[in-house]
Amino acid sequence: MRKHIFNAGPCKLPMTALENTAKAILDLNGIGQSIMEVSHRGKDFEAVLDETIVLMKDLLKIPEGYHVMFMGAGASMQFAMIPMNFLRTKAYYLNTGTWGTNALKEGKLYGEDKAIEIASSKDKDFTYIPKNYAKPTDGDYFHITTNNTIRGSEIHEDYTCAIPLIADMSSDFMSRPVDVSKYAMIYGGAQKNVGPSGVAFVILRDDMLQRVADRPIPTMLKYETHIKNNSMYNTPPCVNIYTMREVLKWLKEFGGLDEMYKYNKAKADKLYKAIDDSKMFRGTVVKEDRSLMNIVFVMEEPYKELEEGFVKFCSERNIVGIKGHRSVGGFRASTYNACTLDDVDALVKAMAEYETKNA
Ligand SMILES: Cc1ncc(COP(=O)(O)O)c(C=O)c1O
């Protein structure tokens, strides 16, 4: 029996994507070879790669002048590649959590004064998105994390910025419509809304190639290499890209990003309402900045010691993945695209039952 999966990433994927990948692993398009066995340079895989890019461009309405790339090593590799390629004089970082902190750390390798933390919500355990600061007007780029997977906060608007805006969208990519034209670069690890772990997506505006820093950059770490070779300078993660294509096909069938956003909002609203209506559970993030993807909550005193019991109570009801990140504690329910209202209903029901039993 399939469980109610609330894992933070890797996470729940649409069943059709899993089934179609399973089939392709055994026999791709009836050619008597697995997706794992064909050459990445052959026509069968090339068609998969091309269609994945077309679907991404179509769903996100990516304007002309942007390159779509796939590479290994996750979003964390991008933290390093961004300053390596684009940090010339100085860059700004908005620090809204662990991942923003990690990205900033890589920038600071080029000089403590070159990667500047423009604002941070660390003072309140990253439970809000800073707003009282002036957006940068000079510098090489402004780096933001649109959704903070661990703390459960999200930037709900597309910022307007005078300098190139670079966004880590690992955990809210394809969960809502985005005005891509506002961004110089969008990137993330695929393992939340678009596929399994092991592949990162990068959407890069062409003019950024004119802004590359004058320093030796290893071939594999240059964006130019991946653009020139259509993500095939080296052997790409073929199976992961195949699954990504299947996830994007599912998303298109679902009705695209407008419909996906409505569904995601409905799921999150339902869960946040259950949290707010309860006397046992409490949301940790300020309401206006609450993530639609990662819903973080804890138990109020005097119920704190009942937290562990709730994880077990859920697991007995086939609800998995709700234990909070080790750095935060409490609970985190990740309601990515493939998570259903039925999954959320099961969790809401378990919360109510647990409260009735123990409060
Ligand atoms: C927002 C965000 N950025 C970056 C990362 C790191 O991604 P990866 O593990 O693909 O390097 C994660 C992982 O969960 C994330 O949630």
Task: Please tag this protein with its features.
single chain; 359 residues; alpha/beta; 7-stranded mixed β-sheet; 9 helices; globular; binds pyridoxal-5'-phosphate
Class by helix and strand content? Answer: alpha/beta
Mean pLDDT, rounded to whole units? Answer: 97
How much helix, percentage-wise, in residues?
25-40%
Shape: globular
Question: Which spans have pLDDT < 50 for at least 5 consecutive residues?
Answer: none
Listed once per kind, the bound small molecules are:
pyridoxal-5'-phosphate
SSE sequence, one letter per element: EHHEHEHEEEEEEEHHHEEHEEH
Content of β-strand: 15-25%
> In this structure, how is the largest beta sheet organized?
7 strands, mixed
Structure description:
This protein has 359 residues and is of the alpha/beta class. The protein is built from nine helices and 14 strands. The strands form four sheets. It has a seven-stranded mixed beta sheet with strand order 2-10-9-8-5-3-4, with helices on both faces. A three-stranded antiparallel beta sheet has the order 11-12-14, covered by helices on one side. Helix 2 (43-60) crosses helix 6 and helix 7 packs parallel to helix 9. The protein is globular. The two termini are 31 Å apart. Bound molecules: pyridoxal-5'-phosphate.
What's the SSE blueprint?
Blueprint (H helix, E strand, L loop, with lengths): L3 E2 L9 H12 L16 H18 L5 E6 L2 H13 L4 E5 L2 H10 L7 E6 L21 E4 L1 E2 L4 E2 L10 E4 L16 E5 L10 E6 L17 H6 L9 H17 L1 H22 L3 E3 L10 E6 L7 H9 L3 E2 L10 E4 L6 H18 L1
Parallel strand pairs: 1-13, 3-4, 3-5, 5-8, 8-9
Antiparallel strand pairs: 2-10, 6-7, 9-10, 11-12, 12-14
Helix pairs in contact: 1-6, 2-6, 3-4, 6-7, 7-9
The structure holds pyridoxal-5'-phosphate.
The site of pyridoxal-5'-phosphate has 11 residues, from helix 3.
